[in-house]
Amino acid sequence: MARVVILGAGISGHTAALHLRRMLGKVHEVVVVTPNSQWNWIPSNIWVGVGKMTKEQVTFPLAPIYHRKGIVLHQALATAIHPEGNSLHERPFVEIQYTDSTRVGEKDKIEYDFLINATGPKLNFAATPGLGPDGHTVSVCTPTHAIEAAAHLKEVINKLREGLRQTLVIGVGHGTCTCEGAAFEYAFNVEHELRLAGVRDLADVVYLTNEFELGDFGVGGMTFTQNGFETTSKLWTESLFRERGVHAILQSHVEKIEKNVIHYEQLDGVKRTLAFDFAMLLPPFRGVDMQAFNVMGEDISAEMFAPSGFMKVDANYTQKVFSEWRAEDWPSTYQTPLFSNIFGVGIAFAPPHQISEPRKSSVGILIAPSPPRTGMPSGVMGKTVALTITDRIRTGESAPAHKASMANMGAACIASAGSGMRTGTAAAMTMYPVVPDYQKYPGSGRSTVDTFGEIGLAAHWIKYLLHVMFIYKAKAKPFWFLIPE
Ligand SMILES: Cc1cc2nc3c(=O)[nH]c(=O)nc-3n(C[C@H](O)[C@H](O)[C@H](O)COP(=O)(O)OP(=O)(O)OC[C@H]3O[C@@H](n4cnc5c(N)ncnc54)[C@H](O)[C@@H]3O)c2cc1C
After folding, report:
1. Does the Cβ of 218 fall within 6 Å of ligand 1?
2. CATH number of the domain that 91 lies in?
């Protein structure tokens, strides 16, 4: 009997758990450790954040699904990994701390044969003083945050109705943030809601970002083929900003936020301020708080995790200049270099380098979008590692690892620009590969045939369809596994 322990039940961890359960015989145990009782389809939090969806529409309880599937669930935080065991445990184990109301704070240890770290990001609001729901801005990263954001937005709309001019700032709250696509989506959904409410004329909508230019999205921008012509995500995005009257402030690192004032610095080294009435700024991400210890009980966290807190896997982490970065630096098996039975997937793995060119301001502040690891690649990584572990359990440890590098993987991203079955719009973008390969595709680093975009109502329907399909899949309803990651 083998036990596979999965830390985290988000997109990558839940995908891995369901596939492992489907592929492994019941004699083997699949165990999930995750702090929340609910699964969340995070992309639709954007719609919760404008009051178009409820928390119940984007979440569901995990326990009944895991019970039905025979997956053991511990509602807990993983706090430490002991990959070599210790004097009391011959086998490797993880330390956990329960979060469910019946056992809150209680600690336990779970032994494993294989471990998948799918803990996603720590929302690092603390990196910027005043950032986040405990400070002066709102967020849409969790359903609870998004509900608060929607309530604040409603207040702002009421003020606009009273004839008071309001400034709404949406973007990222630090020079090294990722997920610019989500900030972009929220900006245009808010702008759409303001128009629907008939108050757009009194509202100033500002998009504040660390991107060098619009359309970068942390992937260095895209070159598409559209209607037989080549265009770029920069042109495309700039035209949407112009059409909707959204003002963009680029190349920014938010330094601190005070009540109604954002202090930011740009690549030119100049510090500026921006007054606001409503601000949704995403936090930077780092790895969750987890340590690792060897058999002697010595802390080996620095060997297992990058300084960012993300787990080191089979990537090339050698420090190089931008022009020397290569697509093959990116990991493909997600196996950790030190332990062949530990894998890091989704946002939890440490990327070897940025995708967008990192830049420093004239006074040395790093303003560089971190590489996004979006839903589709995260799901693919979860499944890939599940396949590797299944093979190794069935045929032995020498079974080769399955591979899925972001440098050989495409991703589809649909950024909503306003919801509504008749009035909605979305920008649908497909890129191949996610990590540009300038050797294989000189110029843009991506295939211009397989990288394309469309904007319009049809893309909104696709975005809504994806919401329905992925929740169906995550609920493990009949034939769920036929829906691709
Ligand atoms: C607002 C927003 C909108 C987005 N929109 C899109 C979109 O439209 N399309 C797209 O492709 N991507 C989108 N993304 C990105 C997408 O959500 C992520 O790529 C995806 O969730 C990453 O999956 P993951 O499994 O790595 O992490 P997550 O889905 O975040 O899952 C991490 C899991 O680990 C758990 N966890 C945390 N700490 C611990 C611990 N110590 N021990 C155990 N478990 C732990 C968490 O509770 C969670 O269950 C969006 C992100 C945001 C924030």
Report:
1. no
2. 3.50.50.100
Supply the pTM of this predicted model: 0.96
**Domain membership flag for residue 389:** yes
What is the phi-psi region of residue 190: left when phi exceeds 0, alpha when psi lies from -120 to 50, beta otherwise?
A: alpha
Residue 449 confidence (pLDDT): 83
Q: What is the pLDDT of residues 318-347, one digit of tens each?
A: 999 999 999 999 999 999 999 999 999 999
In a domain, 148, yes or no: no
Write the residue with the smallest CA distance to atom 38 of ligand 1. Answer: 119
Mean pLDDT, the chain, integer: 95
Q: How far is the CA of 42 from the centre of ligand 1 (A)?
A: 7
Ligand 1 centroid, distance to 470 Cα (angstroms): 14
Provide the domain limits for residue 105.
Answer: 3-123+285-395
Within 338-431, strands assigned E span 342-344, 359-360, 366-367, 411-416, 426-431
Q: Comparing 285 with 231, which gets the higher pLDDT?
A: 285
Distance from Cα 121 to the centre of ligand 1, integer Å: 7
Structure tokens belonging to residue 406: 């972001």
